[in-house]
Design a protein that fits this description.
Elements (H helix, E strand, L loop, with lengths): L18 E5 L24 H12 L17 E3 L11 E4 L6 E5 L3 E7 L5 E6 L1 H6 L1 H9 L6 E5 L9 E3 H8 L9 E3 L4 E4 L1 H12 L3 E4 L14 H4 L5 E7 L6
Parallel strand pairs: 2-3, 7-11
Antiparallel strand pairs: 1-12, 3-6, 4-12, 5-6, 5-7, 8-10, 9-10
Length: 250
């Protein structure tokens, strides 16, 4: 397969050779204005024909059309190979080569997962609601392998310098997980800066996943590279993608 476009993020992790993964950048598409240019979200107000063209361009870099989801900040995780029409879900897994798992993001944390054997891959959409409610744990359960055999990559998300939240968000994470307190720093009364990366690491480690990579890119701060809902309001979406190559490497 050809190299990905230069502004895509390719995970730097020791995944098996059969595992392919990437997070698209915001350049290289046809969308205009607030959505410029490679917006892949069909639910954000962009022109449908522009999104269709952008998705077609994306498709040229992939073995198949991604199995898109209708993300609702929940914990439902599906088997991507059975997806025909986008279901309401916030994660997917597959064991079938050539099936592309995908989530759309623009500040929420995409978490890519694979096992050492290269037999199963998955992706989760980690907004704060989903992380607090257990979307990562549900994804691990759906992968159905020993957590110690898994590795994770944390893709670009809003960084801890910019993710301001209220007491209710902090409380949602601390319920049953007192260690989450270390992921929040106090600001003005009732406001905190939250670290999505640290919150995800804590949940993964508690579930038995010890090898965690990535977690250093901020969608809010890097406006030329990433869409950010917190920064822009009306904006596009990037795709976090993972799949298994066929035995022939196609």
């Amino acid at each position: 397969m050809s190299l990905f476009p230069g502004d895509w993020i390719i995970p730097d992790w020791p995944a098996p050779s059969a595992v392919r993964a990437a997070v698209s950048g915001r350049q290289g598409g046809v969308s205009q204005g607030a959505y410029a240019s490679l917006n892949l979200g069909d639910h954000v107000g962009d022109a449908p024909e522009a999104v269709a063209e952008n998705r077609q361009r994306l498709r040229t870099w992939l073995p198949a059309e991604p199995r898109w989801l209708r993300q609702i900040h929940g914990v439902t995780v599906v088997d991507a190979e059975v997806v025909r029409h986008p279901p309401e879900a916030d994660g997917s897994v597959t064991r079938l080569p050539g099936v592309v798992c995908a989530v759309l993001v623009a500040d929420c944390l995409p978490v890519l997962l694979c096992d050492d054997a290269g037999s199963v891959v998955g992706v989760a959409h980690g907004g704060w609601r989903g992380l607090a409610a257990g979307v990562l744990e549900q994804t691990l359960d759906r992968m159905a392998v020993a957590p110690a055999s898994l590795m994770a990559y944390l893709g670009p998300a809003i960084g801890p310098e910019h993710f301001q939240v209220g007491d209710e968000v902090r409380s949602a994470f601390l319920e049953g997980h007192p260690e989450a307190a270390s992921a929040f720093s106090a600001q003005i009364p009732g406001k905190w800066l939250g670290n999505l990366y640290e919150l995800a690491r804590q949940r993964l480690i508690a579930a038995g996943v010890r090898r965690i990579h990535g977690g250093s890119r901020c969608t809010f701060a890097e406006a030329d590279k990433f869409y950010s809902y917190r920064r822009e309001g009306a904006t596009g979406r990037m795709a976090a993608l993972i799949w298994l190559e066929s035995a022939a490497g196609e």
